[in-house]
From TrEMBL:
The lineage of its organism: Bacteria, Pseudomonadati, Pseudomonadota, Gammaproteobacteria, Alteromonadales. SUPFAM superfamilies: Homeodomain-like, Tetracyclin repressor-like, C-terminal domain. Keywords: DNA-binding, Transcription, Transcription regulation. This is Transcriptional regulator, TetR family. One of its GO terms (molecular function) is DNA binding. Residues 32-51 bind DNA. Pfam families: TetR_N (PF00440). Residues 9-69 form the HTH tetR-type domain. InterPro entries: DNA-bd_HTH_TetR-type_CS, Homeodomain-like_sf, HTH_TetR, Tet_transcr_reg_TetR-rel_C_sf. It comes from the Bacteria.
Length: 189
């Protein structure tokens, strides 16, 4: 008896969720296909019915990871840059290793080493994130500045081994985003 089409879609979804989680935590080089398949609770053979290569998986996992991470926003999330920055640049977002991390922040240094397919997916994911943020402000340049502060701030804060300094960096980036959205110095409390 052949597998139903929904089974194949569900298997691919499990693989993508597994890969997105592992890639954002360990990067491309330190994540193997075997690790991805083990976390997805599937055999390595199932990988080849869905993906042409590890790079193909990586590109698709970036998109999946961004979608999964975006769903973590709280319900009735206030639609303004101040609250968007507070949510994105939180210590919870930085420290949570059990949830899907933002691939834009946590793969930023890894992407430059990848092929054009991966770079194109990352670029499109970043553009979608910018479009989402653009709905919260009318100034495109300030939106771009805010997004760079958010992604860069979160990525650097997570890379540090000094929690107090990391917290200070997150607070400074939140303040910067809020200042950009209001045009004045911001209180991030």
């Amino acid at each position: 008896m052949a597998w139903q089409e929904t089974h194949k879609e569900q298997s691919k979804d499990r693989i993508l969720k597994s890969a997105a989680m592992l890639f954002t935590h360990y990067g491309f080089e330190k994540t193997s296909i075997d690790q991805v398949m083990k976390k997805a609770e599937l055999t390595r053979g199932a990988f080849y019915s869905h993906f042409n290569s590890k790079s193909d998986l990586y590109a698709q996992a970036i998109s999946k990871g961004a979608k999964v991470a975006a769903k973590r926003k709280p319900e009735n999330f206030p639609q303004d840059m101040k609250n968007f920055a507070k949510y994105y640049l939180s210590t919870e977002h930085r420290d949570n290793n059990d949830e899907q991390a933002c691939p834009l922040a946590f793969l930023v240094s890894d992407i430059n080493q990848q092929d054009n397919q991966v770079k194109k997916t990352y670029t499109n994911t970043l553009k979608a994130f910018i479009e989402q943020a653009q709905t919260l402000t009318i100034d495109r340049e300030k939106t771009l500045q805010s997004i760079v502060l958010m992604i860069g701030g979160l990525a650097i804060a997570r890379a540090l081994n000094d929690e107090d300094f990391s917290d200070e960096l997150l607070a400074a980036c939140k303040s910067g985003v809020i200042s950009l959205s209001t045009g004045e110095n911001a209180d991030v409390s």
